[in-house]
């Protein structure tokens, strides 16, 4: 989503500076002046003529500079910037600049432009600025450049600076074109949209998920259909088979209308970064991908962000529009320096969420807050199913995999091993309380969340 910011009615004045050609002319003039001085010393009569000639050249040069300066007071270029409807963090997207000029068509003059677009600081541009190209008089051109954002939230494009030479090329003219635009940079919704467009079987294949055998009777009847190899013979409808004179089986679907609530840790422990995205951005992307799958299965999805400067709660609801609403609600949530207070957020959720739900807590596990986390989970378990999704730091896994060759390697290995053992002990305690655990590296968290969600659906737990 893009919006145009208000601008001042008066455009910025043109800025003119002497070009390289002027510097070259002045250098030649200085050399000639030195030669004239030497000539006057050797031949006073001839030197007087040289001085007069030098004054004539100086007057002509001054006239040319003033005349060309005056001719360079017109704003020759007009431009527009076309942005995508929305931006997604980490995705390569293009920006189009449409440029034109006010020179009469057929004029022999050709403009050589240097374009510098003031993009947001959070956007990395592939092309080097300024971009140079030439345009003929009276023609319009489209210029394309590419970039990607590495930070979510509201971002602002600024002015477009265009530099070109005056008619006699004695002045560099810089024209600023006011094109302020504000854009929303969302989490990686492109992957979500692409995934959402796929059939269930295609989704499972793409995500590397396995179909799980349904257990129990917690499945809803969907329809009758012709029997296929591999179908459970207990689901054959013998009466319908007798009427149709062929094998008919009952097809079931997972229970719908369940509620899924995500508790997203926005505190300082989520600021860790193993690649281009922080753990928090990976967690947000994983939450949205798994929420998309849950919504497609007919469940209601909501969220609560905690350890933020202002606590956010998004009430569970169903339907495809809920995903768009969730994107717009969560796109500008940023990680803070606050410490996660698990007891406070679970108490707040208990007041807001009365209906039984699957509560998915996405956080980074650390043993110093183990007692508080265990108490918070035990409190949630009174009325809800609880899943804790935690991320393993990739750097710790690398330290454990690296060969030990020096004392520093040994220290890193032992420290990483001790950390992982304490972490695993906390996971074991959570599992002993009946908590479902997703433990994955940040870039694989979405797979773990979707796999466990579908597993619970298939088993009739939710």
UniProtKB/TrEMBL annotation:
Q: State whether keyword Nucleus applies.
A: no
| The organism's place on the tree of life at top rank | Bacteria
Under Gene3D superfamilies, the record lists:
von Willebrand factor, type A domain
Q: Which UniProt keywords apply?
A: Membrane, Transmembrane, Transmembrane helix
InterPro entries xrefs: DUF58, vWFA_dom_sf
Give the transmembrane ranges.
22-39, 45-67
Its protein name is DUF58 domain-containing protein
- Give the source lineage, highest ranks first: Bacteria, Pseudomonadati, Pseudomonadota, Gammaproteobacteria, Cellvibrionales
